[in-house]
Design goal:
The chain is of the alpha/beta class and 447 residues long. Helix content is 56%, strand content 9%. The chain has a five-stranded parallel beta sheet, with helices on both faces. A three-stranded mixed beta sheet has the order 1-2-3. Bound molecules: adenosine-5'-diphosphate and magnesium ion (MG).
């Protein structure tokens, strides 16, 4: 209900929503942002109404960066975001269906029929995960239970989970797919409605449960508890469980050992970023799906220049496609080079402020501590990581980075960069931290 907003405010809100959509998955958008409304916009503050406090807290804990960046892109930065809880519906009126439309897991918005085995290209990076998924689709509950697939964003976890789901549904199995955030949300809404029969029946009466992005369990201890019971209930009845996460189980923050050990009962498999050949093959596959006409040369060029993940390849192809259609131009190497140049500028448009912001937040240190001369490891490590990331993602010179880091010498920056690169290969904790920070920094559009 934002009827008292002016037309221009309404337009701004639409723009902000568009910007947010570019930064989160469609599922996440439906889950958390579709119920959000702009109610007031001043020069200092922006007030958003959330359907309940759980929703606003979740957004504050997980999506503030996306919101702040979206505000900035909509040219209304420097505002404090305030959440107002919708009191129009009293707690007792909270009905799961009304407030949590995303719980309707049969909704087509959830399932992408294109994410099937036919459209999934197998290469060395995902061969094991794919084989395990196939085995599970063949005989659920027997071979690998649970099947745990992990890998960083955009590498095909959701696609594989869908492929399993679609294949099993074809064969008449009762399979349920859902993003972990929806499970969390359902749990929280059930606390309010107290309809535990409904909750438990939903999960315990199925043959196969697929939960995507279980790293989100890190945020809620009570939900982990309930998940643990759900897991046990299904497992003891030999029902298949398939899980995905952006990191291996033991790296999910705050997760309890007993859950990790459950995950280890089955198979844990990783998807890696695609190598050159696989990238070319995936590009060719996507080209044929998009009915685009691109030569092998161009595909190779793209594979060489775009890939960090498959979602990015896809996004680039779609952009090239749009551009070529709009301008009625033939897609050749020079056109593609031109378009990619535009992107790579964007790609490196990560400011040092953002790096400092993410690093200080992650390590819980103050910017002034990074600037200081203190040599405690708890401070030198984030300081060096920030310098490394600045080298990697910004176009700033060594001197400039040194300047941002409390007036340090360029050799200090060089040394820090070198040291972190080396640590990355030696220390698993560091490499996983870097992966998380880089994911956070480069969170890309979802196409
Ligand atoms: P994740 O869940 O790991 O972040 P997704 O499953 O959403 O990644 O994949 C991102 C995009 O890349 C999707 O459009 C998906 O279809 C595509 N994709 C990923 N892996 C493959 C693959 N092996 N073959 C073809 N397309 C893929
Ligand atoms: Mg996914």
């Amino acid at each position: 209900m934002n009827h008292y907003l002016s037309i221009s405010e309404k337009k701004i809100w639409i723009l902000i929503q568009e910007k947010i959509k570019e930064k989160v998955t469609p599922q996440q958008f439906t889950t958390w942002f579709s119920g959000l409304n702009l109610i007031k916009l001043t020069t200092k503050e922006i007030h958003l109404r959330a359907p309940n406090s759980f929703c606003s807290e979740w957004i504050e804990n997980n999506y503030m960066d996306a919101i702040m960046l979206s505000l900035k892109e909509a040219s209304i930065s420097n505002r404090k975001v305030k959440f107002v809880i919708d009191n129009s519906s009293s707690e007792s009126e909270l009905s799961a269906q009304n407030n949590y439309p995303f719980l309707n897991t049969n909704s087509p918005a959830y399932i992408n029929k294109n994410y099937n085995y036919n459209n999934f290209l197998v290469g060395p990076c995902n061969r094991l995960a794919h084989a395990a998924a196939l085995a599970v689709s063949e005989s659920p509950g027997t071979t690998y239970n649970p099947l745990f697939i992990h890998g960083s964003v955009g590498l095909g976890k959701t696609h594989l989970l869908h492929a399993i789901l679609l294949r099993l549904q074809e064969k008449g199995h009762k399979a349920l797919y859902l993003p972990c955030e929806s499970f969390v949300n359902h749990y929280i809404s059930t606390i309010k409605t107290d309809d535990w029969d409904n909750f438990r029946n939903k999960y315990r009466q199925i043959d196969i449960l697929l939960i995507d992005d279980v790293h989100f369990l890190a945020n809620s201890q009570s939900t982990r508890e309930e998940f643990f019971h759900t897991f046990n209930a299904l497992y003891t009845r030999q029902k298949q469980i398939v899980l995905s996460s952006d990191c291996p189980p033991e790296e999910i923050p705050t997760i309890e050992e007993r859950l990790i050990s459950r995950f280890r009962w089955g198979l844990i498999t990783r998807i890696d970023p695609p190598g050159f050949e696989t990238s070319v093959a995936i590009i060719q596959k996507k080209i044929s799906l998009l009915k685009m006409d691109i030569s092998y040369d161009v595909a190779c060029y793209l594979a060489d220049n775009v890939v960090s993940n498959i979602r990015e390849i896809e996004g680039t192809l779609i952009n090239i496609h749009k551009y070529a259609t709009m301008n009625k131009s033939k897609i050749d190497l020079s056109l593609v080079k031109q378009i990619i140049k535009g992107f790579s500028k964007q790609k490196h448009n990560i400011g040092i402020e953002k790096i400092l912001n993410i690093v200080t937040k992650y390590y819980g240190v103050q910017l002034s501590q990074l600037h200081s001369k203190r040599k405690l490891r708890s401070i030198t490590l984030p300081r060096q990581i920030a310098m490394h990331l600045a080298r990697k993602f910004t176009n700033l010179s060594l001197e400039e980075i040194g300047g941002y880091m409390g007036g340090r010498d360029h050799t200090t920056v060089m040394h820090a960069d070198y040291k972190i690169k080396k640590l990355k290969t030696l220390d698993r904790n560091i490499s996983s931290t870097l992966r998380k920070l880089e994911n956070e920094l480069t969170k890309k559009n979802e196409y």
